[in-house]
Input
Amino acid sequence: MVPEIGLGTWKYKGGPEPLRKGIELGATLIDTAEMYKTEHAVGAAIKGRRDKVFLATKVLGSNLRRDAVLRAAEKSLHLLDDDVIDLYQIHWSNRSVPIAETMSAMEELVDRGMVRYIGVSNFSVAEMKDAQQAMTNNPLVSNQVLYNLKQRQIERYLIPYCVDNNITVIAYTPLADGSLSGKSRFRSARGESTLERVAKEVDKTPAQAALNWCLSRPNVIVIPKSNSVDRTVENCQASGWSLSTNQVQSLDAAFPQ
Ligand SMILES: NC(=O)c1ccc[n+]([C@@H]2O[C@H](COP(=O)([O-])OP(=O)(O)OC[C@H]3O[C@@H](n4cnc5c(N)ncnc54)[C@H](OP(=O)(O)O)[C@@H]3O)[C@@H](O)[C@H]2O)c1
Output
């Protein structure tokens, strides 16, 4: 089981406190990647709290040959100062490496006790099918993809496929890089004004309404990133309540696909 709101760490520079506050508030899924260079900071922030955390990291698309996958996982564990990754994700697919070789290396990591669950990121439906078929003993548990009010491409095929196959959709950039927070100077009139109206109706902030809208979709969880304790608290408080069907529909209409 994972919480519907986790914590992203791309370009994370907030030190331990925002992540620790998030964990305290139940945002116990922390997402990092070898590419982000934040694994060390995540490892430091979760020291003494590891039992509460669901730790997710990723192997680069350029490291998908068997030996490279094994080496990347070892390096991530070293930087995280830990001995197991809860969710190991393939960051991007790579057509120059047979998917069977990569997935078998991912399963080898599970067999060695270094990884608990296997996921992917930025995979299409066809790529998810290939990845799942290439595994013998493990399910594909998640696909981390771009999803927010302004970027809704996954609604057509990817979310339905994930629902049918018990795959969790981990929505990245759920605040459209902060532009859905109501605090941005760059605003597109119709969408943002509807977001502000809906947020006022439920006595929440636009960022909270934007995150909660993502959660109205089946199988979707979100991983907003913030360097600030206050904004982390704000983002965590997007959980534990739901927009009404009418409010979700107003937002759907205000941000057409
Ligand atoms: N798998 C992939 O290929 C991929 C790609 C991109 C991202 N990701 C993951 O998804 C996570 C989240 O995506 P993201 O970092 O691209 O974008 P995001 O979470 O949509 O937005 C982050 C930006 O919004 C600001 N922000 C956060 N909360 C806010 C709030 N309540 N009010 C106002 N501004 C707020 C942050 O600034 P402050 O930090 O100053 O608060 C930051 O500039 C990443 O950190 C990473 O873990 C994965």
Remarks:
- The longest strand covers residues 115-121.
